[in-house]
Amino acid sequence: MAAPKISVVTPSCNQARYLEQTIESVLSQGVEDLEYIIMDGGSRDGSVDVIRRHEKHLAYWQSTPDGGQVTALVAGFRRCTGDICCWLNSDDMFTPGTLKKVRSLFQEDEGLELVYGDYFVLQPDGSLIAKPKIAFDFDICLAVFLMIPQPSAFWTRRIYDSVGGLNCDYQLAFDYDLFLKIGRATRHYPEAIRHIHDYWSVFRIHDASKSVREIHGFHEEQKRIRSSFGFPRFWPHKKCIQYYQLARTLLAFHAERGLVPTRKEEGKA
Question: Do β-strands 127-131 and 263-268 pair in parallel, antiparallel, or remain unpaired?
Answer without folding.
Answer: antiparallel
